[in-house]
């Protein structure tokens, strides 16, 4: 009892500082879960679509069918087994049992084909055992590891992509917190007169108590607008081909819901409804039509609402409180796609018509908007505030000149990938001590379809520093050295594991990094031209994206996944197992392999080793 009462003998985890840190960690985990969809939601409409928990990608139709009907398929196969082998005896009992080959999320792994010698083709799939197989082959055939790590060693760059080809995501709000810390001490009171610019998409998503009809929804949204004289309601413009297509697919899609009129019932799952671009386009048009009706005249009396619907902007006012006047605002007609960039255009429009004593308040939860406001704040002489958060966390941040939307795009946003486990905070701290990187990020986005080699080299050096090599300037060499530090070659020329290595924790190879720089450059060009209503843009194809065989815009991750001589060796030896292909036709395609059980045992062992290392 005396020992328990002695503070010095108490476990360090019971100290106030440790308890506070633990509580903060728990809150951070809960906050992270809030950003994810609930995979155990019992809503019928959500159950209609399956998602991969590791990447957030929705299951393909074939995978979804097999995963949802695996029980029925198994019962059907068991019934056939009994009928054929025990009842009718049409098949020998000990004959090999055909595999069912049901598709799982593993079948959605990214893959690419590479030409080899003798007119053969090698298919490379994104599988975790691929690196080990390639290393053994390279040692067997004396291929330099230094040369090997100049390639992505897979159909995707593991540092930037998930196994199924999706973008690696990060918590963008880290960037907001870093920049918010820089703004501490810059406090100012709100002016008496302010123009409010509202992120319309965020407002629609934030509505909790939904009415029964779309008529009620229109009234609910209007009532949620700030009760001030001038409000800009800014929404997205949904294009057929967009660099955000990958992110929208990850968030999931839903069926098109026809809004027949104001008495049309709201769907039971409104969030699922909002996952469809067609539905959001319909809803925006409906809201504009409703607010233009004379029923809103009294609410619009002595007020001005700027409403964005696709590329057009309509100004809604009422002079007598009996009729609504709707006029087109040509200065705000824009081909910009996202509300993020159009908000900047509206800020500049409002600034030109406001007195210096008035202010501008932007209401949005999006870090992208905050970064853009910082970049453009020098062009807005009036006080500029960013209104974000909700409840006790709601705050108005006084915007002062800071910079670098290009840095935000480079470290991960909706259209570009983050670096695995790098986040925003570490690179942001590194940026303040790297003048060459600051110069590079200021240069990015000048031209949408070109980034000069000098800038790429500066960014390459910055990535080397991100991965713990501040003196490095060659990511291929850093990849090799990092791998070499975790593995060694023993006297028998065999690789020996020291602490293990995850290829996704290595920096991307230079060719993949350059494509990432092109995507960041393209997105930065859009952001840095947010003040231009009709911006001239070349196609994103060739700027880190490409058009696939179906005509869709997809991410162009890599060039050649492997050295050519290694691909030739794989093709000559017919080593389909090296690529993880368990359905190689020449090895009893329809037979159950005894090695499957061994593979499962090895997987368990490796999983346990990984857990032990983490502990």
Task: Walk me through this protein's architecture.
It is a single chain. The protein is α/β, with parallel strands linked by helices and 615 residues long. The protein folds into four domains: 33 residues; 89 residues, no CATH class; 168 residues, no CATH class; 215 residues, no CATH class. It has 24 helices and 14 strands. Strand 13 and strand 14 form a beta hairpin. The longest helix is centred in the last third of the chain and has 20 residues. The protein starts with a helix and ends with a helix.
SSE layout:
Blueprint: H1 2-5, H2 16-34, H3 44-47, H4 61-68, H5 70-87, E1 111-115, E2 121-125, H6 130-140, H7 145-148, H8 173-182, E3 194-199, H9 200-206, H10 214-224, E4 230-234, H11 245-251, H12 270-273, H13 277-292, H14 297-300, E5 304-309, E6 312-317, E7 325-328, H15 339-351, E8 359-363, H16 367-376, E9 384-388, E10 395-398, H17 405-410, H18 425-431, H19 435-443, H20 453-466, H21 475-486, E11 487-489, E12 495-497, H22 510-528, E13 545-547, E14 553-555, H23 564-573, H24 595-614
Parallel strand pairs: 3-4, 3-8, 4-5, 8-9
Antiparallel strand pairs: 1-2, 5-6, 6-7, 9-10, 11-12, 13-14
Helix pairs in contact: 10-13, 15-16, 19-20
């Amino acid at each position: 009892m005396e020992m328990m009462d002695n503070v010095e003998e108490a476990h360090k985890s019971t100290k106030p500082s440790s308890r506070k840190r633990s509580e903060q960690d728990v809150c951070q985990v809960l906050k992270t879960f809030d950003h994810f969809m609930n995979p155990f939601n019992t809503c019928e409409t959500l159950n209609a679509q399956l998602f991969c928990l590791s990447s957030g990608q929705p299951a393909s139709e074939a995978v979804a069918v097999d995963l949802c009907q695996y029980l029925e398929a198994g019962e059907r196969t068991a019934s056939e087994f009994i009928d054929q082998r025990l009842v009718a005896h049409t098949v020998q009992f000990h004959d090999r049992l055909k595999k069912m080959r049901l598709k799982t999320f593993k079948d959605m792994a990214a893959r690419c084909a590479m030409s080899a010698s003798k007119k053969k083709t090698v298919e490379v799939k994104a599988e975790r055992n691929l690196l080990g197989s390639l290393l053994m082959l390279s040692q067997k055939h004396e291929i330099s590891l230094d040369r090997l790590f100049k390639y992505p060693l897979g159909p995707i760059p593991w540092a930037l992509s998930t196994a199924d080809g999706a973008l690696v995501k990060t918590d963008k709000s880290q960037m907001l917190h870093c920049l918010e810390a820089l703004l501490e001490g810059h406090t100012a009171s709100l002016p008496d007169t302010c123009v409010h610019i509202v992120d319309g998409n965020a407002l629609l998503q934030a509505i909790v108590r939904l009415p029964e009809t779309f008529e009620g929804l229109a009234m609910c949204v209007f009532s949620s607008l700030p009760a001030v004289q001038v409000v800009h309601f800014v929404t997205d413009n949904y294009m057929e081909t967009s660099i955000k297509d990958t992110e929208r697919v990850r968030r999931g899609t839903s069926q098109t819901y026809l809004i027949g009129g104001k008495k049309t019932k709201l769907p039971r799952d409104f969030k699922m409804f909002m996952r469809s671009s067609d539905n959001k386009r319909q809803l925006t048009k409906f809201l504009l039509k409703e607010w233009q009706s004379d029923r809103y005249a009294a609410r619009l009396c002595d007020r001005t609402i700027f409403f964005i619907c696709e590329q057009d902007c309509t100004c809604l006012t009422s002079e007598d409180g009996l009729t609504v006047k709707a006029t087109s605002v040509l200065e705000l007609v824009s081909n910009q796609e996202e509300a993020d960039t159009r908000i900047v255009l509206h800020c500049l429009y409002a600034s030109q018509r406001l007195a210096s004593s008035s202010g501008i308040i932007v209401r949005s939860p999006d870090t992208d908007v905050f970064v853009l406001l910082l970049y453009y704040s020098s062009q807005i002489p009036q006080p500029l505030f960013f209104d974000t958060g909700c409840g006790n966390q709601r705050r108005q941040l006084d915007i002062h000149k800071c910079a670098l939307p290009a840095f935000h795009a480079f470290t991960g946003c909706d259209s570009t990938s983050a670096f695995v486990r790098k986040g925003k905070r570490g690179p942001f701290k590194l940026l303040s001590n790297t003048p060459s990187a600051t110069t590079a990020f200021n240069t990015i986005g000048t031209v949408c379809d070109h980034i000069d080699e000098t800038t790429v080299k500066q960014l390459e050096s910055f990535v080397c520093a991100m991965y713990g090599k501040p003196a490095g300037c060659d990511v291929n060499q850093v990849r090799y050295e990092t791998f070499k530090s975790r593995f060694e070659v023993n006297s028998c020329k065999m690789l020996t594991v020291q602490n293990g290595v995850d290829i996704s924790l290595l920096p991307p190879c230079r060719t993949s990094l350059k494509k990432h720089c092109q995507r960041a450059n393209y997105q930065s060009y859009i952001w840095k031209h947010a003040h231009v209503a009709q911006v001239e843009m070349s196609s994103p194809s060739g700027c880190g994206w490409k058009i696939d065989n179906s005509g869709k815009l997809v991410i162009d991750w890599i060039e050649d996944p492997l050295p050519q001589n290694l691909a030739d060796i794989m093709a000559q030896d017919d080593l389909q197992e090296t690529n993880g292909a368990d359905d190689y036709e020449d090895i009893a395609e329809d037979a159950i392999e005894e090695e499957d059980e061994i593979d499962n045992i090895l997987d368990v062992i490796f999983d346990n080793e990984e857990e032990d290392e983490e502990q």
